[in-house]
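Section 5.1 Outputs to date
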Amino acid sequence: MQCFLSSGIQITMATARNMMRAVRVFEFGGPEVLKLQSDVLLPVPKENQVLIKVHACGVNPVETYIRSGAYSRKSPLPYTPGSDVAGVIEAVGEHVTLFKKGDRVFTSGTISGGYADYAVASTDTVFPLSDKLDFKQGAAIGIPYFTAFHALFQKGRAKAGESVLVHGASGGVGIATCQIARAYGLKVLGTAGTSEGMNIVLRNGAHKVFNHREADYVDKIKEFIGMQGVDVIIEMLANVNLATDLHLLSQGGRVMVVGSRGPIEINPRDTMSKESSVIGVALFSATKEEIRQCAAALLAGIEASWLRPVIGPEYPLEKVAKAHENLIHSSGALGKMVLLI
């Protein structure tokens, strides 16, 4: 009997070691479909993959769109959301030579999902996390900074000396865009909806900031930029601002649509006289070479200390539904939202 009990306990302990907590989505819908489970099988890294013990995971607007079922790219059900994790390598798969157990890392994407105790990621999406940044900051790099660089330079063709308006600059992508644009020699303008948000934008690279809740803020931008207009606009809420953006552009100016929550009516003639462009941006459409270029630039930014993620609201994994709800309905973004695992 004693041996039987001992064996049973060993089996139970071994089983427990192979289980983890993870948020699972079994149907598309509101935040309530996010279900935290404690009996999810621990993922195993395959060839050229690593297993990361997650310390923090970024929460991105796109994850709320995918969860709702309203996004063009749907995840097969059931799934665990989350792309941007930071943590420590727990195990490596075959042929992995760049990383070893114990390494501090961050990702720009996961295979198994980041809202979990552990996540598997391909080595080409995993990068060393400098001691200059903590895990929360590491979890704020992936989608925000890669999207910002992709939008500014790879799709927006921004150049030193040009001007950029970051429309909605106090969130994760907005702050990333301000820091990158300032470091690369652009004239940086930003908008935010609260005084605290405006201060964050100014502290993170913007030369000038405007309150987009003020009725006359567009007139103030026009007065500041003059007849020349803005060369590049990074737009986080195109369904509200796109028609206005077209009137702020310079000759040959570009609006980069990073975020939108619905349709909007515009007059195409507003693009004609200035030969301006409206370009959609989706990081998941970037090529591996573009991602490699983004990573090289951003890792250099960390070493040069101009890449400094600003952390906003923090939530434990148990409060993930509240995090999704607040991300969409908050009165104004204040840094990057993260889950603490």
